[in-house]
Amino acid sequence: MKKMTYHPGFRERLETYSKGEQILVKTGDLPSEKPEWFNEKKFKAGQRLVKKYYGGVLLAHLLSLIMLLFSPSVLKPLIFTGKSETPKKAYRRYIATTVHVMSWYRGNVWREGSRARESLRRVRNYHSDAALTMNSPMVKPLVDQVGIAQCGPRVDGGKPLRYAMERDLGAINNCPHVLPDQLNWSPSSSTLYLNQYDMIGTQFAFVAMIVLYPQKFGLARATDEELEGFIHFWRCIGYLLGIEDRFNFCSDDDLPTFRAFTSDYMEQVVKPAMKMSVSPEYEHMGRVVAMGANNYLPSTYESSYLYITDVIQVPVAQVTKRVSFLDRLRFYLLVFLFQWVGNLPMGNNFLNSAVQFSVTQIVSPPKGSRVKLPPVKGLSQLWNNPEG
Q1: Does 302 fall in a domain?
Q2: 41, 104, 107, 327: which sits with the fewest CB atoms below 10 Å from its CB?
Q3: Chain segment 73-95, per-residue pLDDT in tens
Q4: Percent of the chain with pLDDT over 90
Q5: 106 in a domain, yes or no?
Q6: pLDDT tens digits, one per residue of 166-188
């Protein structure tokens, strides 16, 4: 861990972010006007990056989702909804998430009536309804009490990985820039679910891995202009989903500035928080995400965790001892596909085609298709024509 921050105002910005824990995500409809800071050239550059590299982008999103689950204030509402605590439910939920997010990348989120904008409206309304419901006097105590008992049958085969994870992550130093109560999180009467700080974490999950480590996901040839556009794209999505400008993680959509702050945030906030938050619920929900994704991606929870640790560079000695030879092979296959093939000329064409084929077979399979992936209905129009 770095001994000191190199991003000016790092602590002050964290103090601002911490205030977001007491402020709900904005409720109500999408804003009708573009923000004054909107830059169309940057926005389109961000969309162009995804068009060229969406195989690697979607892998980064999946792994970042597993990482995001270390936050109890995100994990508890997710378990409470009862929509993603089994591999089958997680598979359906995150295929839907993939299709919705891809529609934002491929469609026109600013044009009223487009499917992409309607998708964003649906997600914002879901956040609004969930925020108001889960923080109500009758429901909030129930969310506070959510634990492993609400996660259903065990999926770890009696061989949990979290004890090895705890021993490895114990080598990470606590961060002097984060207050202890921000790491040792527990429900309280003042806790707000789906708050502005939680949305900061969501933005971080979608953007940080790609911008900090593009070569790990087949984006070694992405230009600075494209990466800066990707940051700006998610600044706009945050605005549309109800994040106040002062809490928008992507407000610095200048690439060097963003990388400097995000690198510090990874080292001094995210990694220490991972150390403090390994729990039965965390492992269970991460496992079901990975098990659901195994329908279309050659990975397991163990190989996904190895990939995450390879990308962000956290200790993994104890975990490696517990991981099977087959899971290590799956990890090396992901490395080969995304860190070697994806970074070769035309390599992303292969990865993009594989992702396109897999998702299409799931949400809009052609008649007579011999590929039998579990179907997820109701998404074909959004996947095939987000501009519609």
Answers
A1: no
A2: 41
A3: 889 999 999 999 999 999 999 99
A4: 76
A5: yes
A6: 999 998 877 655 544 444 555 55
Q: Hunting for tokens 């991003």 — which residue is that?
A: 7
Residue with tokens 């997680």: 90
CA distance 154 to 165: 18
Give the whole-angstrom CA distance, residue 196 versus residue 198: 5
What is the domain extent for residue 61?
36-211+223-297+347-384
Q: Is a pLDDT exceeding 80 seen at residue 280?
A: yes
Mean residue pLDDT of the chain comes to 91
Q: What is the pTM of this model?
A: 0.94
Q: Does 132 fall in a domain?
A: yes
Q: Which of 284, 291, 352 is nearest to 92 (CA)?
A: 291
Q: Is residue 310 part of a domain?
A: no
- Tell me the three-class secondary structure of 199-265, residue by residue: HHHHHHHHHHHHHHCHHHHCCCCCCHHHHHHHHHHHHHHHHHCCCCHHHCCCCCCCHHHHHHHHHHH
Residue type, position 164, single letter: A
